[in-house]
């Protein structure tokens, strides 16, 4: 059985939930109205000033709304007033893309290395090479894709080949590559003539990104019970992913999707600090500002048993599988430290690390098993692509918020 992607209004948000049969694999929560500045949006900004001692520029995206541009690795800028020295100067109007939304006192971070993301590839301004997703492990497939994509590269842009490309037909790849090139050419020819503070491309809502980013070979159904959402997704798929349009279904049963799939219960579980394992052992998951700590406790798993090394390894292996699942479900990112049960048997740590590495490799988001420290803490890093579930504020919502789902629905962004 393949995956089901369920998209439905939930407490005045839009919830995207990926299921493997009846098991919830990952969740994303999207505001019905996109924020003013969001990741992926492309703007015509004005360089307010250059700060040489930190090698950065401050770029105004809206009147009074500043962003931070690091100059050290900046791609050649697309701007209206090109200087002979090729550098960015105060007063320049240039095209930038938001890399990171503003967080508390930190400004939004922008880049001149514009990235146009498709289902099969990412077009990158300022780099002329071809990068292949590390998830594509077959050497022959990597070579075939690199040769194919090289035909579309010129001196101003390159591509990152996404995992979905490995299973795609050549005509599907060709259609997307031509579409990405047209978008890029439009930025080059038209974008530089737009006035400052113009929005050249708005960011996609998270639920549409979910349609784009799912592995084609695994996703069997896309289901929503909200007609406006259905219409918007149908239009998106028809234009950008016609091969997936047949997977979209409008659910019309009287029993809401959120009840049928027990969203309330699943989300409560995903926000709990303690996770029980089948053996009676447990995980304690503690997110902090700097990192996330996961502690493996033997709990009931050793009650009435000899505390043998073999049994400790069995608990740790069970915990490794659940940890990989919880990291994806909760969308934990950054540095993750895991305190497994200490084992003295020779080779046990190597078996545990190899097993954990295999489970983490199944995560579509780049996740790296770094090492086991001298204190026997296992260090994991995971790329941040969206906010973790515990920062979405779902646990703070009052029950009365449910009534807002009956209000007129707004599936659009700005």
In short:
With 414 residues, the protein is α+β, with helices and mostly antiparallel strands.
General description of the model:
It is a single chain. By secondary structure, the chain is an alpha+beta fold. Helix content is 25%, strand content 30%. The protein contains eight helices and 22 strands. The strands form four sheets. It has a six-stranded mixed β-sheet with strand order 17-18-19-20-22-21, with helices on one face. A five-stranded mixed β-sheet has the order 3-2-1-15-16. A five-stranded mixed beta barrel has the order 4-5-6-9-8. Strand 8 and strand 9 form a beta hairpin. The radius of gyration is 24 Å and the shape is globular. It starts with a strand and ends in a 32-residue tail after the last strand.
Order of helices and strands: EEEEEEEEEEEEHEHEHEHEHHEEEHEHEE
State the low-pLDDT regions, or none. Answer: 397-414
Compute the average pLDDT: 86
* Secondary structure: number of strands: 22
Percent in strands: 25-35%
